[in-house]
Write a structure and sequence with these properties.
With about 290 residues, the protein is an alpha+beta fold. The chain has 2 domains: about 1-190, Aminopeptidase (3-Layer(aba) Sandwich); about 205-290, Alpha-Beta Plaits. The chain is about 30% helix and about 25% strand. The protein contains 6 helices and 14 strands. It has helices at about 1-15, 15-30, 45-55, 130-150, 175-180, 230-250, and strands at about 60-65, 65, 75, 80-85, 85-95, 120, 125, 155-160, 185-190, 205-215, 220, 265-270, 280, 280-290. The chain has a 5-stranded mixed sheet, with helices on one face. It has a 3-stranded antiparallel sheet with strand order 10-14-12, with helices on one face. It starts with a helix and ends with a strand. About 25% of the residues are buried. The model has no long low-confidence stretch (mean pLDDT about 95). The structure holds zinc ion. The site of zinc ion (ZN) has 5 residues, from helix 4.
Length: about 290
């Protein structure tokens, strides 16, 4: 009996394929980037998402907005949509995130533009189509398939759509946790990582740290370096020395993690002077670090 239902469910999901692709592409078209990365946050995407959720007839949709002065809407939105099961108290959560990482250098997008998704070879390409769009859409349509077949699951299914995952989650899942909506006997699935066959389950992650190195020197004309102090050279030397130091000091390896060691990467670099013949008086470099527990 259960096997029959599962097969019915799978073919129902198959039926929904075109609608899923359409929905994913509609969401990819709306950028949702954190203010730290120069974005406007997730509100526009959430408005579209809530429209989709309403049309599908979820039992209840709750909003958990977090104030954030840095975005035009002043709000970082989090949404929970419920599909009631036989037991209303015990829940199965599926948690996905709304935000995406910035598209980076535009000229590297040679086949498609980041927010103009395309389908090629059976895959959707566009910023966030994989991380975390496909999981987000899959969670919605898993519920839709159940609803279409009139299946009431044992547990209530709660889909959480959270903000701010890419930059620390303070305005996202951390806020939801503080609202006390998760219970110890809830089941929680976070489909934000894995492999194509779906048999990779992650139970721990490295911790994240990022920092900025600001080097102050003295600006001067490049023809007379003695009159100033080149902050760019000093900043680069310091960054390279620090890079070396961190890798040597924290060199522990643990085969459960990929890669098995902590990583310390100099990444972003702020622009300094406008002209090639000016020695910069300030230099700002950033590091992204992923550290073994
Ligand atoms: Zn992700």
């Amino acid at each position: 009996m259960i096997a029959l239902n599962v097969n019915r469910l799978f073919s129902e999901i198959e039926e929904l394929k075109d609608e899923m692709v359409k929905t994913l592409m509609a969401l990819v078209r709306i950028s949702a980037i954190a203010p730290e990365n120069g974005g406007e946050g997730e509100l526009k995407k959430v408005e579209k998402l809530v429209h989709i959720l309403n049309e599908m007839g979820f039992d209840n949709i709750e909003h958990y907005d977090v104030e954030d002065e840095r975005v035009p809407s002043k709000v970082r939105p989090n949404v929970v949509a419920y599909y009631r099961g036989q037991d209303e108290d015990r829940k199965l959560w599926i948690i996905t995130h709304l935000d995406v990482v910035p598209p980076g250098e535009g000229s590297f997008w040679t086949v498609t533009k980041p927010f103009e998704p395309i389908v090629a070879g059976g895959k959707v390409y566009g910023r966030g189509s994989e991380d975390n769009g496909q999981s987000l859409v899959a969670s919605i349509f898993a519920v839709k398939a159940l609803k279409n077949l009139g299946i009431k699951p044992r547990r209530t299914i709660a889909l959480a759509f959270v903000a701010d995952e890419e930059v620390g989650s303070r305005h996202g899942i951390q806020h939801l946790i503080k609202q006390d909506i998760f219970r110890e006997d809830d089941l929680i699935v976070v489909p934000d990582g894995g492999n194509e066959t779906g048999d990779f389950i992650e139970i721990a992650e490295k911790s994240m740290m990022s920092f900025r190195v600001r080097t102050i020197g003295k600006q001067t004309h490049a023809s007379t370096p003695g009159r100033g102090l080149n902050a760019h050279r000093a900043g680069m030397r310091y960054a390279l020395a620090l890079d070396d130091f961190l890798h040597k000091k924290y060199s522990t390896r643990d085969g459960d993690f990929v890669p098995p060691e902590s990583t310390f990467e100099p990444t972003k670099k702020n622009p300094n002077v406008d002209a090639v013949n000016i020695i910069p008086g300030e230099d700002i470099t950033y590091f992204d670090c992923r550290i073994l527990p």
